[in-house]
Amino acid sequence: MAKYTKTHEWVTVEGELAIVGITKYAVSQLGEVVFVELPEEGQEVEKGESICNVESTKSASEVFAPVSGIVRSVNEELEDSPELVSEDPENKGWLFKIEMNRQEEVEDLLEEKAYNEITGD
Amino acid sequence: MTIFDKSVEGKIAFSLPEEKSYGFDPESTLSEKYIKKSSTDLPECSELDIVRHYSNLAKINYSVDHGFYPLGSCTMKYNPKINENVASLSGFANLHPLMEEDDIQGALELMFDLQNYLSKITGMDEITLQPAAGAHGELTGMLIVKKYFQSKNEKRKKVLIPDSAHGTNPASAIMAGFDVVELKSDENGILPFETVKNALDKDVAAIMMTNPNTLGLFEKDIVKIARIAHENGTLLYYDGANLNAIMGKIRPGDMGFDIIHLNLHKTFSTPHGMGGPGSGPVGVKKELREFLPVPIVNRNDEKFYFDYDLKNSIGKMRSYYGNFGVLIRAYAYILSMGNDGLKKASELAVLNANYIKCNLREIIPPAFEGVCKHEYVGYPGNLPKEYNVKTLNIAKRMLDYGIHPPTIYFPLIVHEALMIEPTETESKETLDNFIEITKKIVQEAKTDPQIVIDSPHNTYVRKLDEAKASRKPKVRWNKSS
Amino acid sequence: MKKYPYLPHTEEEISQMLSCVGVNKIDDLFMDLPENLKVDTLDIPDSKDEFSVYRDLENLSLKNTDPSRMAVYKGGGIYYHFIPSVVDTLSSMGNFLTAYTPYQPEVSQGSLQTLFEFQTMISEITGMEVSNSSMYDGATALAEAVLMACRINKRSKVLFSESLNPEYFHVTQTYCFGEEIGIEKFSFDSISGQTDYNELKNKLSDDISAVVVGYTNFFGIIEDLEKIKKMLPEKVLLIVCAEPFTLGILEKPGTLGVDIVVGEGQPLGNRPYLGGPNFGFFSSKEKYIRKMPGRIIGETDDIDGKKGYVMVLQTREQHIRRDKATSNICSNHAHNALRATIYLSLIGKWGFREIARRSFSKAHYLYEKLLKNEKIYPVFNGPFFNEFVVRIDEDISSLNRELLKRNILGPVDVSKYFRNMGNCALFAVTEMNRNEDIEYLIATLEELL
Questions:
Q1: Cystine design at A109: which of A3, B281, B359, C209 (Cβ 3.0–4.6 Å)?
Q2: What is the per-residue pLDDT for A121?
Q3: Chains contacting B (3 or more CB pairs within 8 Å)
Q4: Is pTM, for the whole model, over 0.90?
Q5: CATH superfamily entry for domain C67-74+349-448
Q6: What are the C-alpha distances in Å from C322 to residues B164, B170, B192?
């Protein structure tokens, strides 16, 4: 089950790894995605830190690390096909995977229902 | 078709004198490693090919000479033709920047007088004409702030900027090494005194304000804000983009601003030239004179000269002395309009904006109430929600009717904003036509929304795929294309 | 009742409009201004008619010495090349001159396509993959290139050639003061006038972001870019500030692996105008395009599949990214870029090469002849393009005053920028210096010295 942040990231957990992307709602606000500036593999990140950008033609949106840890992989497919984020944000359009320092941080994230209340869905 | 597509090997559009060659060929004079191995494939066309190519491109361009251009914050006023005429005088256009001062006394006199006029118009003590554009002026101003605190051995890191500000304000403050703190405008679109007071501390180097602000509203707390800023040792910066609202009425210097920039390509009628050149003179109070970029133009008993004697100068902002060609045009404009005409220009600019406002307020309600100054900011009522017709669609539909839309989606704090700045050079008939077209489009949006949403229909190109253009940018012509 | 040609309102229209707005007089629209701060007069002269304004400006222009009918040997960054009539005719068309930035692409295809062609020409000349659509001037283009290099490799120190135009150093230094970037000079070899390779080598380290050199440098000397590029550690960028016409003959910086190429575009169809407005060109490797400052135009299609042009990568810019923008630049020098585009179309492939070759040949002839004068000596022995430095047994300013009386705008006095280079003169030669003018200069110097 995916968890969510107030800043419109989604997170699913696979063992030590947290897989992160931006939500359908975020994509609907942003417009057609034309570029994703990915974080660097091996980069250490703190929860809440801005670590990359997703851009449409008219705006740029920061993506914040939902948990602390080390970036272990990034979705390299997005370099050539950033539109995957628009087309399939919560699956093929994932952004990066973080190896978590403190797995308990996931518990603090929002459940789907709570997140939908924020976005008014 | 680009000029490259029209190129045919062997065609020429240029001639040079028949002359005996002195015979110093690069190939025999220079070591081979310096010589170019590849060719530089510039177009090969006839003179008439080129004249037709660019004349036809001009035809598919909108311009002030062509029609109404009510871009908010841009002051698209008429660009008088005499300005072009005098700027092209050979005794100006052909001056080399490294000529002796004695040989350019006319140019220096013009610059000295212009500094003087701009200082009188704004209430500032000293002006530099060096910055090349408004944003360049902002950076100049912010570097002056930085140098000022450095000279006092103070380290201040923060610059306060209201959320209604132009994007260049935060960008310029960052380039000068400051951190930006955004201040919220209140429910009346004004930056309240209390908000500034609460944000001020000893780390605040400057506050950047536009007055009237980008909502076209006069910041009524300005005098109190200036006082409390100065009590805190903070400098007050004026973004002069909207000076066209207040010439001859009130001066930024008297409001308490310490540093200002002007946009000669807005207020002083120099042409925008598809995006530039502009000119962004900066004015300061006398305490800050020593920090200005060098040189400024000065005079002694005998002559005008470049004055490099500013002991804490931030340095140079660009090569040489400024966009002199633009300065000539602004100077001619000030002479033409004079004391009486500049005041009249501001009065009519404000009248025009309010006239549009009172005629459109039913369908494009004002974002904030109150008498506006030179521009009117509104939003298209319930059209986005009820008919799915957004501001962007309305703007594009205006293109179908042959007028240029206002600025849209700015200021950012107004949802679906339309920012309309008619300027004083537009007649009542032009405004009436604009009002009528806007009403017609709003009517269409209700009866036949799709035609508005799909617009423009009859422009040279229709809606362009900007996403494609930005995903894999193709920014030059290639043979294969 | 005073008349203002730029203000179209009749008195009757004004009163109709006032009553529509619901106020009695125009001053009522300014009631929200603090009463005690309002002014009545600006203490500047009253308005004038067009004829008087023209006379005033013409009189000012006549107080200057007009070099247009002189033989000019001044360069140092700003050059005199012949500008064909078509450039003025086309660029002064109102639909170019009075258009705004092309934010509405559907009605701005003329501007956008022209600037796309401009970018192509700059890429073609510099050999770089991508170019933006202009900066204010060469100096600010260079300063922004330094900031861009620091963004790319996240370092904050640059090495700057002392032999580059000193105006450019001063401007870059001011920009570096803002962003707190360290800037250190490396000197030139006093014999060749090229980079002092040993000094550059000693100053290079892994924390250096970029090395900046001129091509040609301020003394007209051709730098060995290939050699410099080979000296740099992998992540150190090479920024070249190029004089465009040198690239009619010299190897393109792009071919030599240079990362960013900028320069002053004035020689391409723009008049000197006391140094402005002209324009800066800015080009780089494609992989850096998202770190570039300024507006960039790209090709795309409209919904009917018709080719068109738009501004691309706008998320780099201040109107969207605000405090996170790659630069604060908004207005650029598009109209000067338009002039350059028309100019380059006119001179074309042949003219670009021919002007460069003539300038080169004439400069080398003049250099050889001047050195035959007993009071003129060589300063550097490195290769040069169309500018060179010589030392003269005479104060350069006084010599220039004498030359001016004889209708010659003389060389740049190098000591104005390099104090220890007294009596050094920098001569620039272009296709505008006809053979008879060059002979006249040689004879005049024989007579004066």
A1: A3
A2: 62
A3: A, C
A4: yes
A5: Aspartate Aminotransferase, domain 1 (3.90.1150.10)
A6: 12, 6, 22
